[in-house]
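Hi V.,

Quick status before I head out on leave. The structure for the redesign project is tokenized and pasted below; the design run finished overnight.
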């Protein structure tokens, strides 16, 4: 129980820090969302001061001291009010996030599951069969992890999309010919349009998982309990999975939490390149329009999601390995 309270306290402080940074960053960007909104009306006469004041309150920008704005921002969050979007005015921020989040969650979850599954599985086999062709291939793939997500996305878009024409260049589905709904045509179109963004994320992340799991397998195979299992004449597959891989995968659980933040960052860049209507694309629109409420809402969703995933992994790791709970 003490381990649980320590973790909850740590993540509560981390959440407060994320909320504070989330408040400060948009206000460091040049531009005023109120001026952007007023410029769209193209009025011949300047608006009355009351109208401008109303917009400043609506979008959370004013001449009040920063600490006053900060507490007003916290009060809004406590009531679940994320404000009104400048980019999609007068749509509320919560509605914009609700429309973008399913696309991002679907792409991230599928890509991450494929990346972790393939990386851990191939790394396990490579570590078990040291000196094989797969083991020799792993070091040559590590350069993929060093390629920026957006650069790899551009390369895949150019060669597989524009060059060979195997995949569409943008969008989440065929907007012209397919209607949204739980139909075979719509699901097939979504998978087809999401294949190239997902491939970008998988290629960028799989090498690190393979190398980490391979090295842990090599280290674990030298342990006494693995040697004893082999000496008993147990089947090689059982020794590999039940004895070696079962213990070698523990550091990968921690690595999952660390990797998630980088994976989400790569997701944002990938969505921008492919004009994928998720959180990353909405964030680009928000930055271009100095949309404080939408930026804060998106940053908040990303921060909370990453912190929640890390907390879940920490608690899961404590259940898997009792030594972690005792060390605290």
């Amino acid at each position: 129980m003490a381990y649980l309270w320590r973790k909850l306290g740590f993540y509560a402080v981390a959440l407060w820090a994320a909320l504070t940074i989330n408040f400060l960053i948009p206000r460091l960007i040049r531009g005023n969302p109120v001026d952007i909104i007023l410029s769209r009306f193209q009025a011949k006469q300047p608006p009355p001061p009351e109208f401008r004041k109303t917009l400043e309150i609506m979008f959370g920008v004013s001449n009040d001291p920063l600490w006053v704005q900060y507490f007003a921002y916290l009060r809004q969050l406590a009531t679940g009010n994320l404000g009104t979007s400048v980019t999609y005015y007068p749509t509320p921020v919560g509605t914009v996030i609700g429309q973008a989040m399913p696309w991002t969650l679907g792409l991230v979850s599928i890509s991450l599951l494929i990346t972790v599954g393939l990386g851990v599985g191939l790394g396990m086999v490579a570590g078990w069969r040291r000196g094989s062709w797969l083991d020799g291939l792993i070091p040559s793939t590590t350069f993929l992890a060093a390629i920026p997500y957006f650069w790899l996305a551009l390369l895949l878009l150019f060669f597989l999309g524009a060059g060979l024409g195997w995949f569409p260049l943008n969008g989440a589905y065929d907007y012209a010919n397919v209607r949204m709904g739980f139909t075979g045509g719509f699901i097939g179109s979504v998978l087809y349009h999401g294949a190239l963004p997902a491939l970008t994320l998988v290629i960028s992340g799989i090498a690190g998982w393979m190398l980490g799991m391979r090295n842990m397998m090599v280290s674990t195979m030298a342990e006494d309990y693995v040697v004893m299992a082999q000496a008993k004449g147990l089947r090689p597959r059982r020794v590999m999975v039940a004895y070696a891989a079962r213990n070698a995968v523990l550091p990968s659980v921690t690595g999952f939490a660390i990797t998630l933040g980088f994976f989400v960052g790569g997701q944002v860049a990938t969505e921008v390149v492919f004009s994928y209507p998720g959180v990353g694309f909405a964030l680009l629109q928000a930055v271009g329009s100095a949309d404080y409420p939408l930026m804060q809402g998106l940053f908040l969703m990303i921060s909370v999601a990453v912190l929640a995933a890390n907390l879940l992994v920490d608690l899961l790791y404590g259940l898997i390995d009792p030594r972690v709970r005792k060390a605290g």
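Above is the designed sequence. Residues 184-220 form the longest helix (37 residues).

G. will cover questions while I'm gone.

Best,
W.
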